[in-house]
Amino acid sequence: MENKKNPGSPSVREEDMFYEYWLASLKPLSARKKRMLRDAYGSARAVYYIEETRLDQEIYLTDLDRRVLQAGRDSRNQEEYLRGLKESWEKLKESGIRLILYEDPAYPSRLSRIPDPPYAIYVRGELPPENQPAVAIVGARKCTPYGEEMALEYAETLAGAGVAVISGMARGIDGAGHRGALNAGGKTYGVLGCGVDVCYPREHIGLYMDILKNGGLIAERAPGEPPLPAYFPERNRIISGLSDVILIMEAKEKSGSLITADQALEQGKDVYALPGPADSALSQGCHRLIRQGAGILLSPEDLLEELGIDRIHLLKKSDRNKKMLESPEHMVYSCLGLFPKSTGTIIEETGFSPQKVMEALVSLVLEGYAREVSKNHYVRAGKSSGEKA
């Protein structure tokens, strides 16, 4: 059922929450810069009242960032601007949409651990439970009947076993993933590339309402924001960020699904891909992922068996990753992705000595986290059979 509680963070006074709403809604100011400003000045309210001369001293801000922060705040219209902001905030509360800040205890812990978490998220309905495994099912919008059938089957089986299904509510594979979870009476969560109150595509309004009743809808963009092309790659990092495992059902060689896969690997998540006909353009992206180390989807039951093993295994892996967080191996691992990267580039990005980088790479290869694809060029190993239980 949709949560009707008023939005707000326990660490922020209610009378200051509309300033948080203001900062969260600013565009194109990035989530990272919003956090930097808030950390520097202590609150969104303080950020709102920054003097222009102080803003000029924040060297990480562009001229456009400064104009966005200053918009509507000159003495002639500031009172009217604030009144409109407060009215908008009150309407948001009345609608049942929650604004959950990064520092809020309700903010999803999985999402908080990704490299670039949203400053805040807007939520209708529920968030995926912290203690429930979550799997993302994504793929082509213009999918084949085979891809759609497989997405439905995997989602039904996973949701029937108590796994939360995460997707982007797009046409094709995304919609099939959501429907499969709903068919099984399970929970599913849609991450939108627009405002959380905007149904896109419009023909998914029935699906939108069903997800609201049996899970939740999540967005980084403010309510009312239309679906713009630039929002979808940003949305994809949230889909993978909320998930433990990502399934790519169908994808062309160049597609948003492969962006999601790369982001998932950057976040330390396991990626699986569905093999398909060798001559199908919509399977080429999946085949490439498999060649580069992604797990192979053989059957929903086989995946469930792996997940059942991996729940214990992932806890061990998580403990090992915690130890890696302060190690050179983790820094080097963070530099790797789906595409080969030279040792010279890794040295430049980490700032480590050549010897330290090579030691870290040897360790990562032995542990199954990385693979040398050509001389001195490395990629992440994805779902590695070399990982130790």
Summed up, what is this model?
The chain is of the alpha/beta class and 389 residues long.
Give a structural overview.
By secondary structure, the chain is an alpha/beta fold. It has 3 domains: 14-95, no CATH class; 125-309, Rossmann fold (3-Layer(aba) Sandwich); 325-380, Winged helix-like DNA-binding domain superfamily/Winged helix DNA-binding domain (Arc Repressor Mutant, subunit A). The chain contains 17 helices and 12 strands. The chain has helices at 17-25, 31-41, 44-48, 52-57, 63-70, 78-94, 109-112, 145-160, 173-183, 205-213, 231-241, 256-266, 281-291, 300-324, 328-335, 343-350, 354-367; strands spanning 98-101, 120-125, 134-138, 164-167, 188-192, 215-219, 245-248, 270-273, 295-296, 341-342, 370-374, 377-380. Strands 1-2-6-5-4-3-7-8-9 form a 9-stranded mixed sheet, with helices on both faces. It has a 3-stranded antiparallel sheet with strand order 10-12-11. A hairpin with a 2-residue loop joins strand 11 (370-374) and strand 12 (377-380). Helix 1 (17-25) crosses helix 6 (78-94), helix 8 (145-160) runs parallel beside helix 9 and helix 15 packs across helix 17. The radius of gyration is 22 Å and the shape is globular. The two termini are 39 Å apart. Mean pLDDT is 85; it is low at 1-10, 309-326 and 382-389.
